[in-house]
Amino acid sequence: MSDLVIILAMNGLVWGLIIALIALGLSIIFGLLDIINVAHGDFFMVGTVFAWTVILITGNFWLAFLIVPLIGMLLGSLVERAVIRPVENSAALSIVATFGLSLILQEAVRATFGATPKRILDPIGVTVPILGLDYQVYRLFAAAIAIAAIVAFFLFLHRTKFGTWMRATRQDRDTAIAMGVPSNRIFVVTFGLGTALAMLGGVVAAPITTVEFRLGLDVLPLCFMAVIIGGLGNLPGTATAAVLLAFVEGIITSFAEPTTARIFSLIFMSGVLLLRPQGIFARSTR
Amino acid sequence: MGRLRNLEPMQILGLLGALFFLTAPYALPLVVPGFWVNITAEIMIWALFAASVNLLFGYTGLLSFGQALYFGMGAYGVALSIEFFHFSFWPAALTGIAVATLSAFVTGIFAARLTWHYFAIITVVFSLIFFFFAVGWKDVTGGDDGMPFTMPPVLKVGGLELSLLDLTFQYYFILAVVGACFGMMHLLLKSPLGYAFIAVRENTARAGLVGYNAYMVRLLSFVFSGFFAGVSGVLFALFSRYASAHFLFWTVSGEGVVWAVVGGAGTLFGPVLGTAFLIVIREELSAYWEHYLLVVGVIVILFVTYAPQGIMGLLRKAIARYARPAAGDGRGARP
């Protein structure tokens, strides 16, 4: 029993770090473009499918870590120009547009990749003893990659000119534009980056989940939970909330049904939305 | 004819629409095969669902992504009360509607406090809570597989027994209920409360200043919307003879939003057109191409990009272009 708790808690932690990665992408899109991207979970799903495709073509899983985020960047930028730009001033229309996008992504994958779920073999295939239990090394590696990507993203946001522009645009779009920040370029890059994060999350998660076209449907609510509980626009809060949520859900799953764990976190999230819409980590300003 | 020419474009459209909706649906079972009668019945049910989304979004300015909750509550209200409590038809249907309306009231108390993104998200969250509940509580709800139930007769007088198992009768039954609901919605929207919805949508602060309690207005709109969604859920459960946890999933809510927006949010019949358009596309295309959803996705994106007012907006433009020169007295010449 206690073994199971440790395994599920560790799995929750690893999964939480991956969700944190994806949720960061959702959060910057939400914070900067002010749109709810319903297709974000599907970009994650497309990431897992591309990881599978990279293995199919090159036989090398590790190449996916390089190729897929680049494809994500490109795909995201294209989508921003073609789909998001025309509706970016209307919150409601943008939700509907991304819902259409979500249909297209899912159906495109179903048409090409197929409807049957597929599995990717553990690319490391080694286990290490942790607290007397054999644990997949790949999961530890996945956690490390997720942490590295999150740190790199924060460095980009705080140490580069583009990152500063992005933060400025999020704080006050009009002033930023008046100061000469190229807002259109910022939007393209933000959406591209957000998509790349989701697809990178897909590559990281591919060997520890099944690859199928409906994968995004479950991940999307989790990411929104992290974004809301962590606080809109509060990126470190989002990452922390994602890890905490998955960790707690992992522990609850060890003695109850997974659906019970999910209901628990959803009720917690409604409480946060109603009582502390700025997120649980925000200082009590505003 | 002279009077007709002086009508505003929208009035012409309204007259044509009313004429169509008052005649065509009744004649339908006489002229088309049973398959399309059933599709039309399904369209009417989903149109009512889309209209419930539209009541909140188009008129009150609140985008709900959780209408599936009240749809599912209505469906399960009927299914459970027939299967477990052996209710007859009418008590079961009324139970479904009551359960949906009540749950809209309880969740609305919280949801109506929020607006914008936060409103959209909390409505999804509420619907997801009950979705996972329905998935987890498989013994009662049937989970993802759903729970079928046996259909009680609608009316049984002596030797006469009317049941929805008779597809023509089912069609007229659904037509009557959906028609009555749209009539109610029309009256609601033309009532002072209906104008209060619009006032809150247009400018919440000003609506508050002239004496509306914006929270109460939003809550009332939410409850009415839940009621209509509940009726559509009851009808759909009766129509498909089962209820499933999937009815509560957020993609169902999303479809309602898409139908309302493609048809034209903020108009009474827009959701009907949007639902009819997309379901007919589904039925026509899915026969030839399994992946017709790709086309639906593209259509949705094209609509929000090039025709954000939906089919109604397109019709309005087309009619205005045709009617303006004929009117000639400058009535249609508003900017």
Could you explain how this protein is built, in words?
Chain A is built from eleven helices and four strands, in the order ααααβββααααβααα. In chain A, strand 2 and strand 3 form a beta hairpin. Chain A has a domain of 197 residues. Chain A has 286 residues and is mainly alpha-helical. Chain B has a single domain, classed as ABC transporter involved in vitamin B12 uptake, BtuC (Orthogonal Bundle), CATH 1.10.3470. Chain B is 75% helix and 3% strand. In chain B, the strands form two sheets. A two-stranded antiparallel ribbon of chain B has the order 1-4. In chain B, helix 3 runs parallel beside helix 8, helix 3 packs across helix 9 and helix 4 packs antiparallel against helix 5. The longest helix of chain B is centred in the first third of the chain and has 27 residues. Classes of the chains: A mainly alpha (286), B mainly alpha (335).
